[in-house]
């Protein structure tokens, strides 16, 4: 069994996927637009003008596959009650990833030494997705 995160960007999925490709080296495994669905959508499922939005995407960050969508394209993504955690081997990599994710985002806890790690920090990226970066002890 696997648990995989599925993120709903509510209209900015393609931009987010490109950001993660650039910032984290994400590898895009699949991206399907609403208009490319093999079956017609249920009435009311795709707002007018959203045909080019992302119905489903999957991308790999390290060894983890993350799935994503534009969802209902309402323009109001809400990421609460969880964080995605990146474990890295050294401080230099932690600083690089923390800076990349923080570009246009909001630092919640600066990257620094803690009792459990030589480097730990929390940041919400420009899409509001919360991240924790931790240097493996």
Q: What would you call the shape?
A: elongated
Uncertain stretches:
none
Radius of gyration: 16 Å
Annotated CATH topology of the largest domain? Signal recognition particle alu RNA binding heterodimer, srp9/1
Q: Tell me the domain tally.
A: 2
Named CATH architecture of the largest domain: 2-Layer Sandwich
Could you estimate the helical fraction of the residues in percent? Answer: 10-25%
Number of DSSP E strands: 8
**At the first level of CATH, what is the class of the largest domain?**
Alpha Beta
Q: Whole-number average pLDDT?
A: 95
Q: Provide a count of the helices.
A: 2
Structural class: alpha/beta
How far the N terminus sits from the C terminus, by CA atoms, comes to 27 Å
Question: Topology of this structure?
Answer:
Layout: E1 6-8, H1 13-24, E2 27-33, E3 54-61, E4 64-69, E5 84-88, H2 91-102, E6 106-112, E7 120-124, E8 130-135
Parallel strand pairs: 1-4, 5-8
Antiparallel strand pairs: 2-3, 3-4, 6-7, 7-8
Describe this structure in words.
The chain is built from two helices and eight strands, in the order βαββββαβββ. The mean pLDDT is 95. Strands 1-4-3-2 form a four-stranded mixed beta sheet, covered by helices on one side. It has a four-stranded mixed beta sheet with strand order 5-8-7-6, covered by helices on one side. The chain has two domains: 64 residues, Signal recognition particle alu RNA binding heterodimer, srp9/1; 52 residues, 2-Layer Sandwich (Signal recognition particle alu RNA binding heterodimer, srp9/1), CATH 3.30.720.110. Strand 7 and strand 8 form a beta hairpin. It is of the alpha/beta class and 137 residues long.
